[in-house]
Structure formats: structure tokens, C-alpha cells
Amino acid sequence: MTDPDNEHSQWKSEVSRTLDASQDDIDGATLGRLRAARREALSRQIQKPLWQRPQIVVPCAACAVAILTIVNLQIAQRPQISETPLASTGLLEDLPLLSGEDNLDMLGELEFYIWLEEAGQDLG
Length: 124
Fold this sequence. Notes:
It is a single chain. The protein is rod-shaped. By secondary structure, the protein is mainly alpha-helical. The protein has helices at 4-23, 28-46, 54-77, 95-98, 101-108, 110-123.
């Protein structure tokens, strides 16, 4: 039994020899038309829009998928915002104390309070 790869190789070399031999018999007009058709086919390939070129489309698509995956993971890991009303958290209880006029005077003397705290730490 013969090897299929060997048979295929022999067939290819026979076809190649036949085509090479027949190329020498082609007249000048036909050879000129073949060359013109080849040039036209190559120029069409060069003029393809960017979105039709796989060497451009595949990396761009891969980058888009990677960016979408990263964004999706970031959104999924974001802490959930509580739906609890602000009043029930107790944060608004100190609002009247903080908005009083006495507290505004205290902010004006902030440097004194900072010094007092530092001095108290040095003494204690």
C-alpha cells in the first residue's frame, strides 16, 4: 500500500511541472493580460477598508472585549449603595449642633484648640 502523503507530493510536483512547461507556450498578449489581472487583484487588496482587514479587526476586537470585561468587573465589584434613608442612620441628629452659631465661633479659634490639644499631650 502506498503512502497518501507521498502520492499527494508526487501529484503536486507533476502538476507544477506541467504548469511550468505550459507557461513557456503562452503568447505575449495572454501573458500581458495575466500580468494586468494580477496587478489589478493586488491593487484591490491594498485598497480594502480598514474594517475588512483581519490584521486590524482582530486586535481591535480583542482590545474591545478586554476593556468591556475590565469595566464589567469594576462595576460588579463596586460596593452597593444602601437604600436606607439618611434620617434612619442617625447622621442627621448632629446637624443642629454643627450648624449653630457657636460652632462658627469655634471654627474661627481652631488654631487655639489645636495648640491646646498639642500642649495637653505634652503635659500628660
